[in-house]
Design brief:
The protein is an alpha/beta fold. It has one domain: Amidase signature (AS) enzymes, CATH 3.90.1300. It is built from 14 helices and 15 strands. The strands form 3 sheets. It has an 11-stranded mixed sheet, sandwiched between helices. A hairpin with a 3-residue loop joins strand 4 and strand 5. The longest helix has 19 residues. One of its GO terms (molecular function) is catalytic activity.
Length: 497
């Protein structure tokens, strides 16, 4: 029952076959069984379990379903569904620490906009999920919250920064989850955990100021299915008075109505890029991405190979030039005086960002962004969506820092050293070009038993086509069931230097 999807759960709630309280208890029991605690190692996906308030909300949902009669107004779209929220999505009256010693004991004065909307839609928030410090890494561990592990292989990370969200979904500890993304922080954990993650166009899902004004970032939904992820995206999205960059309607059904299953592949023109220029990509990841392309083609899509003039080095320099003028200084100011207590990856991020800002002015950074955006537009001319891997590597160590970069084995067996581990993921270009919607969906398992994902990239603001293609992929491509027995796999990760 803990692995039930949101749509199936709502149908059972309406039929009286299942109550929200019963589903919540199944999820809480699963957390008790596999999340671990100080004496029992486990996935460690949560910073806090909100069992009492969740049970009260579930009982209220029980009563609402029991009282519903034909002809009544529709019940809220998430009524009774257990939702895990990323800790950075503040809940009024609870701590908001973001894994930082500098923020220890801070209390949120108001709900984050996405929390507000989840609650208004009837969602039952039962837990808050882990992230690395200030969400600045693609693994999920911190001195404050410890190491979050991948349910498929406890030696592996679930990715980051929304690693707790991905791990909770994959392990049956949540039905839906909130996430965020500034360089892949929703899509990377989705790929590594076999779940679905959505990076909306900038502003489509409201954030919390002041960093909501950073045009690389965005909050978003994760789920175990494309349909569930679309449902949560519709709840979360739309103009909000707190975020002046937010736009569009809320909960208008435009995403869920775009889901056609396998039939949605018919007539699609799909651009295919296995490397986005010169990314080294593991053989198993390339093969699974090609498998997705072949499945779409067999179902009536046209596959068009596209090329991009990008290098991982250039994309890293472009992204860090941006971070050097916004996120890096914000982190340095927030953590001043507590540097000795920071994780090593956080100190490295702040230093890298400062160095990049000294080399590129903000206007220079905008020019770098514009070049990437123009090249992406040219590559996607004449296609409806772009298909590309989400990650380049099969796994990363759960507690890895990769301060000296990462060695990535390419499909031909050669090994290439990348200066920064962020280059081991094919995600940041679509934060540089952050008006494009991107959906990461599962494509299978790698040779080390950790999931693989593909990204479906749309034209600016064209969300419906991305969900149409993602729905087709999940109907056409078989992937293994989620691990009831966690951590079965054991394998060596890419070697760090």
């Amino acid at each position: 029952m803990a692995f039930l999807d949101a749509h199936a759960a709502r149908e059972r709630f309406r039929s009286g076959d299942l109550t929200p309280s019963a589903l919540l208890e199944a999820v809480l029991s699963r957390i008790d069984a596999v999340n671990g605690d100080g004496d029992r190692p486990g996935v460690n996906a949560f910073t806090e379990i909100l069992a009492d308030s969740a049970r009260a909300a579930a009982r209220a949902a029980d009563a609402a379903y029991a009282a519903a009669r034909p002809g009544d107004a529709p019940l809220p779209p998430l009524l009774g569904i257990p939702v895990a929220t990323k800790e950075k999505h503040g809940i009024a009256g609870l701590t908001l620490e973001q894994g930082l010693a500098a923020c220890r004991g801070d209390i949120a004065s108001a709900h984050h906009p996405v929390v507000e909307r989840v609650l208004a839609a009837g969602g039952v928030i039962h837990g808050r999920t882990t992230s690395p410090e200030f969400s600045c890494a693609t693994t999920t561990h911190s001195p404050m919250w410890g190491v979050t592990r991948n349910p498929w292989n406890l030696d592996a990370t679930p990715g980051g920064s929304s690693g707790g969200a991905g791990a909770a979904l994959a392990a049956g500890m949540a039905v839906l989850a909130t996430a965020s993304d500034i360089a892949g922080s929703t899509r990377i954990p989705a790929a590594f955990t076999g779940t679905v993650g959505y990076k909306a166009p900038y502003g489509r899902i409201p954030g919390a100021p002041p960093l909501s004004a950073d045009w690389y970032r965005g909050d978003g939904p994760m789920g175990r299915t494309v349909a569930d992820t679309a449902l949560l995206a519709e709840v979360m999205g739309g103009r909000h008075p707190v975020d002046h960059a937010s736009w569009g309607p809320q909960a208008n059904g435009s995403l869920t109505s775009a889901l056609q299953g396998a039939a949605g592949a018919q007539g699609l023109r799909v651009g295919l890029s296995l490397t986005l220029g010169d990314y080294p990509v593991a053989a198993s990841i390339r093969e699974r991405t090609l498998h997705v392309a072949r499945a779409l083609e067999a179902a009536g899509a046209e596959i068009v190979e596209v090329s991009l003039p990008w290098t991982t080095d250039r994309l890293r320099r472009t992204a860090f030039a941006h971070f050097g003028h916004i996120l890096g200084p914000a982190m340095a100011r927030l953590t001043a005086g507590t540097e000795a207590e920071l994780a090593d990856y956080t100190r490295r991020f702040i230093a890298d960002a400062a160095r990049a800002a000294s080399q590129e002015s903000l206007p220079d950074s905008l020019a770098l962004d514009a070049a990437v955006q123009s090249e992406l537009a040219a590559a996607m001319a004449g296609v409806d969506v772009l298909l590309t891997p989400t990650q380049a590597v099969e796994m990363l160590d759960a507690d890895g820092a990769y301060l000296d970069g990462i060695d990535v084995r390419d499909a031909d067996g050669s090994t290439r050293h990348l200066e920064h581990y962020w280059e081991a993921h094919l995600t940041s270009p679509f934060n540089i070009a952050n008006r494009v919607p991107v959906l990461s969906v599962p494509s299978g398992l790698s040779s080390v038993g950790v999931p693989i994902g593909v990204q479906v990239v749309g034209h600016p603001f064209d969300e419906a086509t991305v969900f149409r293609a993602g729905s087709a992929i999940t109907d056409l491509v078989a992937v293994p069931p989620f691990p009831v027995e966690i951590g079965a796999g054991r394998a060596a990760s890419p070697r760090s230097r």
